[in-house]
Amino acid sequence: CEILSSLPLQMSLYFNVYFFPFWWLITVAILYLKYPALSDYYKFILVTIMILVSLTELIRLYLGYVGNLLEKVPELAGFWLLTLLPQLPVILFLLFNEGLKIHSLERAVHIIFAAFLSFQVVAAFFTLKRMVNTLATRFRLTEFHRLEEQRPGPGISSPALGSSSRGWLGPGAGWRTGPEGVAR
């Protein structure tokens, strides 16, 4: 029983759980302060981003914990996809778009959050790859052992191979009885 979960990924998730409320409070506070100075479309974009990031982050962290600790591939794959697609591009947008009038404290927390996300994308990819390879190997070994159990032992003739005159005669021929009178 090899442990497939990743300790660095789990540590990153643990610290991310505590960092996210801090990031959220700072981002919302600075958004409140700079909201009147923003253009209308940036106001809409930032409010939409905050709602999207908040909901996605809760789901993403849950899937990361379940996928990594319980070694579940679908949950970890969902975590990886949610990290790679909506979260990382949104944080990079918040970090590098100068039209948002980025405050220095806001830039600092976005850099830390982007570092968490970048590390988690890489760590989750390698953890997911190791889990999938190990589960595929276990499946192949299970199938191999199942086939070995079904294979007849030495000295026993296999009716399916047609090596016995008392076995199956072929398609449409029916079954014959052996010298013991037992149908084979």
Task: Report the principal-axis shape.
Answer: elongated
What are the segments in which pLDDT stays under 50 over at least 5 consecutive residues? Answer: 163-167
Number of helices: 4
Strand content: under 5%
Secondary-structure-derived class: mainly alpha
Beta-strand segment tally? 0
Largest sheet: none
Domain module count: 1
In whole angstroms, the N-to-C terminal distance is 43 Å
Please provide the ordered H/E string of secondary-structure elements. Answer: HHHH
| Fraction of residues in helix | over 70%
Rg measurement, Å: 30 Å
Overall residue-averaged pLDDT value? 87
Report what the structure shows.
This protein has one domain. The chain has helices at residues 7-34, 40-69, 73-96, 104-150. The protein is mainly alpha-helical. The chain contains 4 helices and no strands. Helix 1 (7-34) runs antiparallel to helix 2, helix 1 runs antiparallel to helix 4 and helix 3 packs antiparallel against helix 4. Mean pLDDT is 87; it is low at 163-167. The protein is elongated, with a radius of gyration of 30 Å. The longest helix has 47 residues, at 104-150.
List the helices and strands and how they pair.
Layout: H1 7-34, H2 40-69, H3 73-96, H4 104-150
Helix pairs in contact: 1-2, 1-4, 2-3, 3-4
